[in-house]
Design a protein that fits this description.
This is Branched-chain-amino-acid aminotransferase. The chain has about 300 residues and is an alpha+beta fold. It is built from seven helices and 17 strands. The protein has two domains: about 5-125, 2-Layer Sandwich (D-amino Acid Aminotransferase, Chain A, domain 1), CATH 3.30.470.10; about 135-285, Alpha-Beta Barrel (D-amino Acid Aminotransferase, Chain A, domain 2). The two termini are about 30 Å apart. The structure holds 4'-deoxy-4'-aminopyridoxal-5'-phosphate.
Length: about 300
C-alpha cells in the first residue's frame, strides 16, 4: 500500500488527498489525454527542515513541453511555484515521490485536444527504493517502444504507458524484475520507466534521441557527470546482442536512480560494475547536495 501525502493540489487549490476526486466521464481517463512528471524529494541529511528537489527546473520544463502536445499552455515557472508550495504544504519527513499531472479534465466523447478543458494536479507519496539497488534481472520485451511518427515521445504522455505496463507485467510474470524494450528498428531503446546505459571497453554508451527514447533527466545528468569523471560517453544505436556481451549495464531514472543489471534473458553479466558504481556514488552525493560543483541542480525547499 502507498502512503500518500496528506494534501493534493487539485482545481487550483490544496485540499486533502482523499477529497481530490474526478468524474468517471473525464476525457483523459478514456483517451489517455494526459501527461505527467515525476520528481523525488529527499530530506536534507544536514537539515531535516529542508527537502531537496533534484533538477526541479528541468522537470518543470519537460512537463510544460508535454502539456504543449495536449494543447495546453502551462508555463514551467508556474509548475515550479506550485511544486514548491506542494512540498511546503505537506512538510514531508521521509523521501517522497511527487507526481504532477496535466490532463483533459472536460467530460467528452470524441478523442480530441481542442475545445476541451484541461487541468493540472499534483499528489505525492512516500517512496524508498523502486528497484533492488544491488541489481536486477531483465527480459527483452516482446513489446516494442512506440515510434515518434505516431506518438509524441518527447512528452510523458500517459497513453504511452500501456506499452510500459504490458512489458513490465510480461517481465514480472515470467520471472524477471524489469523489461528492456527495443524500438521499431530493433535497436535497444529503454526500460519501462528508465533509460539504459551499457559499458564496453571503458566506454559508456547510451541510445541517442533518434532512437525514440524519453528525454530522461537522470540520463542527461549521468552524461554530464561522466564527462567530468573523464569517462568517455557515446550516444549511438545499440544492438540487442551488445547487451549480452557488455561489461556493465544499468538502468536510470528518477524512481530507479542508477540500478545495475545482473542478468539479461539467459546471459549473466560480470559481477563487478566499477563505472556504474562510480557514477552512482557521484549522483547520490549530488542529489544529497554534497557536491559543491552541482549545487545548481539541487533545490532546497524550507518546510518550516
Ligand atoms: N523513460 C521512461 C519511459 C520514463 O517514464 C522515465 C521516467 N520519467 C525515464 C525514461 C527516466 O526519466 P527521468 O530520468 O527524467 O526520470
Amino acid at each position: 500500500m502507498h502512503n500518500f501525502l496528506p494534501f493534493a493540489y487539485f482545481q487550483n487549490q490544496f485540499i486533502p488527498f482523499d477529497d481530490a476526486k474526478i468524474s468517471i466521464a473525464t476525457h483523459a481517463l478514456h483517451y489517455g489525454t494526459a501527461a505527467f512528471g515525476g520528481l523525488r524529494g529527499i530530506p536534507n541529511p544536514e537539515n531535516p527542515k529542508q527537502i531537496l528537489l533534484f533538477r526541479l527546473d528541468r522537470h518543470c520544463q519537460r512537463l510544460s513541453q508535454s502539456a504543449k502536445f495536449l494543447h495546453y499552455q502551462l508555463p514551467a515557472d508556474k509548475i515550479e511555484g506550485i511544486l514548491i508550495d506542494f512540498v511546503k504544504k505537506n512538510k514531508p519527513t521521509v523521501p517522497i515521490y511527487i507526481r504532477p499531472l496535466v490532463y483533459s479534465s472536460g467530460l467528452g466523447i470524441a478523442p480530441r485536444l481542442h475545445n476541451i478543458d484541461k487541468d493540472f494536479l499534483v499528489y505525492g507519496l512516500e517512496m524508498g527504493e523502486y528497484l533492488a539497488s544491488d541489481g536486477i534481472n531483465c527480459r527483452i520485451s516482446s513489446w516494442y517502444r512506440q515510434e515518434d511518427r505516431s506518438f509524441p515521445l518527447r512528452g510523458k504522455i500517459t497513453a504511452a504507458y500501456i506499452t510500459s505496463a504490458l512489458a513490465k507485467t510480461e517481465a514480472v510474470e515470467s520471472g524477471f524484475d524489469e523489461a528492456i524494450l527495443m524500438n521499431s528498428q530493433g535497436k535497444v531503446c529503454e526500460a519501462t520507466g528508465m533509460n539504459i546505459f551499457i559499458v564496453r571497453n571503458g566506454q559508456l554508451i547510451t541510445p541517442g534521441f533518434e532512437q525514440d527514447i524519453l528525454e530522461g533527466i537522470t540520463r542527461h545528468s549521468i552524461i554530464t557527470i561522466a564527462q567530468e569523471l573523464n569517462i568517455p560517453v557515446k550516444e549511438r544505436a545499440i544492438d540487442k546482442t551488445e547487451l549480452f556481451i557488455a561489461d556493465e549495464v544499468f538502468l536510470c531514472g528518477t524512481a530507479a536512480k542508477i540500478t545495475p543489471v545482473k542478468r539479461i534473458e539467459n546471459y549473466t553479466l560480470p559481477e563487478s560494475n566499477p563505472i556504474t558504481d562510480q557514477l552512482k556514488e557521484k549522483l547520490t552525493a549530488i542529489t544529497l547536495n554534497q557536491d559543491p560543483n552541482y549545487k545548481d541542480w539541487v533545490y532546497p525547499i524550507d518546510i518550516d
